[in-house]
Amino acid sequence: MKLIKRFKTLITADAHAVLDSIEDPHALLKQAMRDMASIIEENESRLKQVNLNTKRLENYAELFEKEQTKLNQDLALCFESDNKELSRSIVKKKLILVQRVKFNQRIKLTAFEQQKQLQNQLASNQDEYRQIAQQTEVLFSQTEELEKQKDSNNRSQLDLVITDDDIEMALLSEKSKWVAS
C-alpha cells in the first residue's frame, strides 16, 4: 500500500512539474502576487473586525462603570433607609456586574493581543509584498529588454541570411563587370 501511495505522489509531482513548465512563468508570478494581495486584504479585514470588537468592549466597560456607580448610589440609599431585602438584591447585582467586568477585561486583553499580532503580521506581509512587487517589476522589465534584444538579434540574423536570388544577382553583376572590361 505504501508503494502505491508513493508511486501516486511521484506521478502527481511529475504531472505538476510538467504543468508548471508548460505554464507561463510570468502568469504564475502574477497569480502569486494576486494571491498575496488577497491575503493582505483578508488580514486588513480581520484587523478591522478586531478593532470594532475592541471598541465594542471598551463601550461595554464604560457602561459597566456607569452601572456600578448607579448601583453604589442605590446601595447607599438602601442602607440609609435600612432596607435589607433591597440591599441584598443590589449587592447581588453588583457581584454579577463585577464578574461581567472581569470577563470583559479578559476578552479585551485577548482582543488587544490579537490586534497587536494582526498589525505586526499585516505590516510584515505588506513589506514583503512591496519588496516582491519591486523585484517582479525589475524582473519583468529585464525580461522585456531581453525579448527586445532577442527580436533585434533575430532581425539582424535575418538580414545576414543570403538567399539564392542574392547570389544570382551578385553573380550577374560581377559577370557584367567582367564582360565590360
Written description of the protein model:
The structure is a single chain. The protein has 181 residues and is an all-alpha fold. It has a domain at 43-130. Helix content is 95%, strand content 0%. It is built from 4 helices and no strands. The chain has helices at 2-22, 25-81, 84-160, 164-180. The longest helix is centred in the last third of the chain and has 77 residues, at 84-160. The mean pLDDT is 84.
| Nearest-integer average pLDDT | 84
Percent of residues in beta strands? under 5%
The description of the largest β-sheet is: none
Determine the structural class based on helices, strands and strand pairing.
Answer: mainly alpha
Shape: rod-shaped
- The tally of strands reads 0
Given as residue ranges, the uncertain stretches (5+ residues, pLDDT < 50) are none
Terminal Cα separation, in Å? Answer: 90 Å
Radius of gyration, in Å, reads 39 Å
Q: Please tally the helical runs, counting DSSP H or I stretches of 4 or more residues.
A: 4
SSE series: HHHH
Helical residue percent? over 70%
Task: Please describe the structure with a list of short key phrases separated by commas or semicolons.
mainly alpha; 181 residues; single chain
